[in-house]
């Protein structure tokens, strides 16, 4: 794979993992363009781990505070109730993705990694965002995190197993439907991404270690570094964007992308 293609794949993963436009949907299309096929396990694993590292670096203070809060609670020391509730909500919110992922991930990826189905899911995700924006505008907001909200957002995150949906988009929309502000929904979504994406990436690396295929580590490094840098940019951009704007630009983008996918499939036949 050429260096420019590595950079493009890395940038695409880093940007689309945190923007609600579907990272898996874009990667399926790029893999198809480059003739790699959607199942390039080594690249997917490294790109996922690189984006996780971006979250950890960006939210390092939050993660340190949450980890310290959990340790203090385990030691029966006084803790900030808001912080311990957030920590527990993140733990509980991770459980649905682990269970559903272990049971259905390979099946969902095999069945749905089809360009036309990805296009359909892009449209379905746009409809979800429209409903989330309508609910956000017409209902009272409550940024208080609870364990129930954490679990429900975790259930929304499971929709990301369907390529084209967007993990961040599904969980942000879920948070908005539960009364959280856009910015708080995005922050919780990004923190919730750490165990889920890291687990998926490590699982693929372990599977790769048992395979006999050759790996171009130089190409992986280029793609991984690009994904990391693009991920940092996307996180900062998204958190800043949702403080002042709605999800409508992403809704329109997804609809345009779905149309492009359909046209590409039609004219490529």
Automatic annotation (TrEMBL):
It is a multi-pass membrane protein. The chain crosses the membrane at residues 45-63, 84-104, 116-134, 155-180, 218-239, 251-268. GO terms for molecular function: undecaprenyl-diphosphatase activity. Keywords: Antibiotic resistance, Cell membrane, Cell shape, Cell wall biogenesis/degradation, Hydrolase, Membrane, Peptidoglycan synthesis, Transmembrane, Transmembrane helix. It holds the Pfam family BacA. One of its GO terms (biological process) is response to antibiotic. It is found in: Cell membrane. Catalyzes the dephosphorylation of undecaprenyl diphosphate (UPP). Confers resistance to bacitracin. Belongs to the UppP family. This is Undecaprenyl-diphosphatase. It comes from Candidatus Kaiserbacteria bacterium RIFCSPHIGHO2_01_FULL_46_22. The gene is uppP.
């Amino acid at each position: 794979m050429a260096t420019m293609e590595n950079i493009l794949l890395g940038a695409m993963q880093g940007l689309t993992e945190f923007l609600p436009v579907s990272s898996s949907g874009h990667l399926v299309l790029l893999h198809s363009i480059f003739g790699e096929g959607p199942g390039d396990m080594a690249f997917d694993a490294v790109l996922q781990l690189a984006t996780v590292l971006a979250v950890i670096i960006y939210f390092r203070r939050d993660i340190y505070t949450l980890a310290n809060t959990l340790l203090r609670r385990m030691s029966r020391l006084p803790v900030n109730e808001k912080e311990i509730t957030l920590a527990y909500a993140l733990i509980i919110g991770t459980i649905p993705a682990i269970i559903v992922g272990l049971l259905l991930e390979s099946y969902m990826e095999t069945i749905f990694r089809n360009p036309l189905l990805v296009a359909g899911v892009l449209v379905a995700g746009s409809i979800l965002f429209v409903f989330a924006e309508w609910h956000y505008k017409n209902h009272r907001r409550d940024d208080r995190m609870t364990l129930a909200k954490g679990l429900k957002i975790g259930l929304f995150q499971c929709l990301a197993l369907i390529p084209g949906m967007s993990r961040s988009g599904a969980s942000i929309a879920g948070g908005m439907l539960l009364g959280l502000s856009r910015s708080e929904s995005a922050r919780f979504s990004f923190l919730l991404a750490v165990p889920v994406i890291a687990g998926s990436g490590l699982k693929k690396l372990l599977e790769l270690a048992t395979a006999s295929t050759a790996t171009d580590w130089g190409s992986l490094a280029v793609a991984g570094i690009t994904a990391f840098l693009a991920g940092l940019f996307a996180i900062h951009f998204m958190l800043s964007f949702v403080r002042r704007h709605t999800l409508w630009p992403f809704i329109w983008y997804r609809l345009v992308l779905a149309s492009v996918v359909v046209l590409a499939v039609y004219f490529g036949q």
